[in-house]
Amino acid sequence: MKLRSFNLANELTMASPTPGKKFHPKRVWSGSRDRFLNFKRATITRRQMRADKSAHHPRSSRRTGGSLEHRLLALSFVPPEDVADCFDQLNDNRPDELAPVYDYWEDNYIGRLRRKRRSAPTFPIALWNMRSRVADGLPRTNNLVESWHHAFQSSVTCHHPNIYKLIEHIQAERDHTEQLTARFNAGNQTAVSSKNKYIQVTRRLTALLPTYGTKSLLEFVRDVAHNTQL
Predict the structure, then answer these.
(1) Could you give the CA distance from residue 54 to residue 60 in angstroms, rounded to a whole number?
(2) Rg, C-alpha atoms of the chain
(3) CA dihedral 211, 217, 219, 222 (to 10 degrees)
(4) What pTM was estimated for this model as a whole?
(5) Cα-Cα-Cα-Cα dihedral of 25, 30, 33, 35, to 10°?
């Protein structure tokens, strides 16, 4: 805006008549004024469009409690027997533009409600529900297993060992595991790094699970939605 104002003033003060033509200050002022007004209208229009888009965009609800898409993901941490009821409450409060998303979720993950009965979904709730995994403290991936397999394979030093050599490495691995178990039982426990974002999310979810039942379903799903990602 300041740059436009400077250019406008510069055009009015530095304009000089073209040789052979008369200088018309009113014409210069009129053209500059029109460009200035057009720029101002365009700026106001862009601001209004951004404000309207932010107000009506489904993700704008993230500022007031997680987006409506993330709340669907939060159903993974609701007890399996309450997932359908919680989905119905979310479905009753969704905007119309998210109807296709919720229809897809109901057909594939919840089960379509017909004649007061739900059909079997493509993916049963017990298959994708993660509440028991978090409550039992189980890892979210099998990276630990893959890490052990890589370390064991490196210690063997060959791809096709004979049976006797394989037994020797298995015995060595057993001795190493017993040593680690003895150190762990003696109190020599290495704390897991808290810098990993997934570990931080798991800790927050572990703290949220006991709050189920102390608040409404929508409030619980909203709180969990802050810790989910698409």
Answers:
(1) 6
(2) 32
(3) 100
(4) 0.56
(5) -120
Tens digit of each residue's pLDDT (9 = 90 or more) over 150-164: 888 888 878 888 899
Residue 91 φ/ψ, nearest 5 degrees: -65, -35
Q: How far apart are CA 205 and CA 212, in angstroms?
A: 11
- Same domain? 8 vs 107: no
Indicate the DSSP class of residue 120: P
What 8-state DSSP symbol labels residue 118? E
Phi then psi for residue 117, to 5 deg, are: -135, 145
pLDDT of residue 189: 66
Nearest CA-CA partner of 221 in 94, 65, 84:
65
Domain match, 32 and 69 both:
no
Tokens at 165, concatenated? 């050599």
Name the residue range of residue 209's domain.
Answer: 64-137+199-225
112 and 74, same domain (yes or no): yes
Measured CA to CA, the distance from residue 76 to residue 123 in angstroms comes to: 12
Domain count, the chain: 3
Q: Coil, strand or helix: which one is 67?
A: coil
Pick from 223, 209, 192: nearest CA to 134: 209
